[in-house]
Automatic annotation (TrEMBL), chain B:
The keyword Transmembrane does not apply. Belongs to the ABC transporter superfamily. The keyword Nucleotide-binding applies. It comes from the Bacteria. This is Peptide ABC transporter ATP-binding protein. Keywords: ATP-binding, Nucleotide-binding, Transport. It comes from Rummeliibacillus stabekisii. One of its GO terms (molecular function) is ATP binding. One of its GO terms (biological process) is peptide transport. PANTHER family: D,D-DIPEPTIDE TRANSPORT ATP-BINDING PROTEIN DDPF-RELATED (PTHR43776:SF7), TRANSPORT ATP-BINDING PROTEIN (PTHR43776). InterPro entries: AAA+_ATPase (IPR003593), ABC_transp_ATP-bind (IPR050319), ABC_transporter-like_ATP-bd (IPR003439), ABC_transporter-like_CS (IPR017871), Oligopep_ABC_C (IPR013563), P-loop_NTPase (IPR027417). Pfam families: ABC_tran, oligo_HPY.
């Protein structure tokens, strides 16, 4: 087993607003090993981006409050660190890729200079010449053709996919141990998305970087993740290896997410399975299981007491009372199970 | 097959020196959903906007219910055209006036077309439209910012339906929404189509949703339609290398197959003046030269 790089323990983050205190992240626990990719999946407002920004200590205070918990990066808690100490970690140890490559780049500065800036800042021994050489190498590594020529161009001269490659080159410039990618492909076309994901996988293989990949697209998760955390209303509701989450999902919210995706194979006149209603207001989170009002399998206890994380396997956990030994046995909904069986049959696998 | 409701012939839309849409032709049949897919900048939205007369087209002909939409029209005919053809926009945040309530937004069309003049009747109609799209009657008095993204899109749909149109252009109606909400809106669109016999032109870049909702699909790239056929044909039997490449790029929620999946890159091949639409199978069209089609279809 490789070493644990990051451990998040009982993280709680609140925001003070006029409408009251928003409990955006409500007790999140996960860890990340070296060279591993963890995907955090959830809908808007689930707290996935707040969680990832918190790892970089990018939550503005005020209105944000790190209410509780620890973020242990190589065993050291980041929460009490000062802004000055954090600056040494940001970019150097943990780097981030954002959704929109246009706003992440400086439109008035040539891309080469933007990459050099990072190299010079993080490596005291680097000279202008060595930084330039390295910047061109990086552009080449992320698959930008004619790197010498591109080095001298401005962001507006790049297409969306090429811009995201530049952002990745900048993120890699300081050779970080952890790369956080917040919806890095959402603004891109599918064919470009596929290229960027290939690129991130290649980088990970070459440099053993750990990746946290934030997305709402389950197809992308299946492609890139080793492990998956499904978030709902500020909490992780299911957590497991990518195969466990996709072939043996246990939480009704995960069932809902998988059921909402159209199936390319069949399903002509069937309606899509939907999750009725919308996520709860986190200024006043509901008592009990936050998903209960949208859960067709909700029981009395769901409205009264919050479920703990139940262990499904050594690596698989789900936060639902349905896994309690006294709960009625609820199988995976037929439509979802049928689709999983279809995929497994095609993959030539009987059991996972 | 049923009658044609829309005929697009050789539509060209030029902005300055850029041909956003480059001489495309297709028909839409009554009661069907035609999916128009392609990547950003391929001209799919421009096509939709030319059809609903948001742009004056550069060249070509568009006939709606047999009549040229750009022909000389009386004020009354124009109003009738506007009533019959409606649009649902991508961004439910930008397409609703923040200073109007949901009721006022829906009511605007009635005002223009002089419908439901009786106040009670009008209130009743607004209420029933809100219910049709899965909202409550009480929502009529709320402003756009009081709704979530999915709810806003439902208001956009209610507005589009308010004048009993027969043809709806939906321009990326679900791209801005969360997965579970996307499914709700798609189901709603399907149900409305069944109940009211609507015809949809569904513009999107998400191929899996398009496959799900469309009867036929047209694949666009650089202002041209490269392939057109039934959804089944396009997915099971794609012929144009670009369609193949697009399909291979869709990630599926199946980790085992994803780990071994090979994406097909697309190498652009220049099509010279000889390239035309070929009907490879009945109803399945591919754009290219004779040699290209022969090469692709092996």
């Amino acid at each position: 087993m490789s070493e644990t790089l990051l451990e998040v323990k009982d993280l709680k983050i609140n925001f003070k607003t006029y409408a009251g205190i928003v409990q955006a992240v409500r007790g999140v626990n996960f860890d990340l090993k070296q060279g591993e990719t963890l995907a955090i999946v959830g809908e808007s407002g689930s707290g996935k981006s707040v969680t990832s920004n918190a790892l970089m200590k990018l939550i503005p205070q005020p209105p944000g409050i790190y209410d509780q918990g620890q973020i242990l990066f190589e065993g050291r808690d980041l929460i009490p660190l000062t802004e000055k100490e954090m600056t040494k970690i940001r970019g150097n140890e943990i780097a981030m890729i954002f959704q929109d490559p246009m706003t992440a780049l400086n439109p008035t500065m040539k891309v080469g200079k933007q990459i050099m800036e990072v190299i010079l800042k993080h490596n005291k021994k680097a000279t202008r010449d060595s930084a330039k050489k390295r910047a061109i190498e990086l552009l080449d590594e992320v698959g930008i053709p004619f790197p010498e020529k591109r080095f001298k161009q401005y962001p507006h001269e790049f297409s969306g996919g090429m811009r995201q490659r530049v952002v990745i080159a900048i993120a890699l410039a300081a050779e970080p141990k952890l790369l956080i990618a917040d919806e890095p492909t959402t603004a891109l076309d599918v064919t470009i998305q596929a290229q960027i994901i290939e690129l991130m996988k290649k980088i990970q293989k070459n440099s053993n970087t750990s990746i946290i990949f934030i997305t709402h697209d389950l197809g992308v998760v299946a492609n890139i993740a080793d492990r998956v955390a499904v978030m709902y209303a500020g909490q992780i509701v299911e957590y497991g290896s990518v195969n466990e989450i996709f072939y043996n999902p246990r939480h009704p919210y995960t069932w809902g997410l998988l059921g909402s995706m159209p199936d390319l194979e069949n399903s002509e006149d069937e309606l899509l399975r939907t999750i009725p209603g919308s996520p709860p207001d986190l200024t006043n989170p509901p008592k009990g299981d936050a998903f209960a009002p949208r859960n067709e399998f909700a029981m009395q206890i769901d409205y009264e007491e919050e479920p703990p994380m139940f262990q499904v396997s050594e690596t698989h956990f789900a936060k639902t009372w349905l896994l309690h030994p006294d709960a009625p046995q609820v199988p995976i909904p037929e439509a979802v199970q049928k689709r999983i069986d279809g995929y497994l049959a095609k993959d030539g696998v009987k059991h996972v | 097959m049923s009658e044609k409701i829309l005929e697009v012939k050789n539509l060209t839309q030029q902005f300055g020196s850029i041909k956003a849409v480059d001489g495309i032709s297709f028909d839409v049949y009554k009661g069907e959903t035609l999916g128009l897919v392609g990547e950003s900048g391929c001209g799919k939205s421009t096509t939709g906007r030319s059809i609903i007369r948001l742009y004056d087209m550069t060249d070509g002909e568009i006939r709606f219910k047999g009549e040229d939409i750009n022909g000389k029209k009386s004020k009354r005919d124009l109003k009738e055209f506007n009533r019959e053809m409606q649009m649902i926009f991508q961004d439910p945040y930008a397409s609703l006036n923040p200073r109007m309530t949901a009721g006022e937004i829906i009511e605007e069309g009635f005002e223009i077309h002089g419908l439901y003049k009786n106040r009670k009747e009008r209130k009743e109609k607004i209420g029933s439209l809100l219910e049709v799209v899965g909202l409550n009657r009480e929502h009529a008095n709320r402003y756009a910012h009081e709704f979530s993204g999915g709810q806003r899109q439902r208001i956009g749909i209610a507005r589009a339906l308010s004048l009993n149109p027969s043809f709806i252009i939906a321009d990326e109606p679900i791209s801005a929404l969360d997965v579970s909400i996307q499914a709700q809106v798609v189901n709603l669109l399907k149900e409305l189509q069944r109940k009211h016999g609507l015809t949809y032109l569904f513009i999107a870049h998400d191929l899996s949703m398009v496959k799900y909702i469309s009867d036929r699909i047209a694949v666009m790239r650089r202002g041209k339609i490269l392939e057109l056929g039934t959804s089944e044909e396009i997915y099971q039997n794609p012929i144009h290398p670009y369609t193949k490449s697009l399909l291979s790029a869709i990630p599926l929620p199946d980790p085992i197959s994803e780990s071994t999946r090979v994406r097909i890159p697309y190498e652009h091949e220049d099509t010279d003046a000889e390239a035309t639409m070929h009907e490879v199978f009945p109803g399945h069209f591919v754009y290219g030269t004779d040699q290209q089609i022969a090469k692709w279809y092996k």
